[in-house]
Specification:
This protein is 81% helix and 0% strand. The protein is mainly alpha-helical. α1 runs antiparallel to α2 and α2 packs antiparallel against α3. The protein is elongated and about 55 Å long.
Length: 100
């Protein structure tokens, strides 16, 4: 294996860690607002690391460009859906969690 393969594996592993951390945050955080935050931030960052890890393994610039465009679209969709869920919770008068 080349050194670039090790770097790629490191990026993929870091991305998997962020995906797992976001999933744990969705399960463990107490209210909808903190869950949205955990999910959108961790998953977007995790996907970024995965895409960089995969980009290091390919030779095609077109494939790399397409994956980064997809990442941008996923970031936009995640931000939009997170906003819509938070707005729906706010209009439904869901109170944010407060530390007891």
């Amino acid at each position: 294996m080349s050194p670039m393969d090790y770097v790629s594996i490191a990026f993929l592993s870091i991305g998997a860690f962020f995906f797992i951390a976001g999933s744990v945050g969705v399960v463990r955080f107490p209210d909808v607002y903190t869950r949205i935050h955990a999910l959108t931030k961790a998953d977007n960052l995790g996907l970024g690391f995965v895409i960089v890890g995969l980009a290091l393994r390919t030779d095609s610039w077109i494939v790399i460009a397409k994956t980064f465009i997809i990442w941008g679209l996923v970031i936009a969709a995640g931000a939009t859906s997170g906003y819509l869920v938070a707005e729906a919770a706010r209009t439904s008068r869901v109170r944010p969690w407060r530390k007891p």
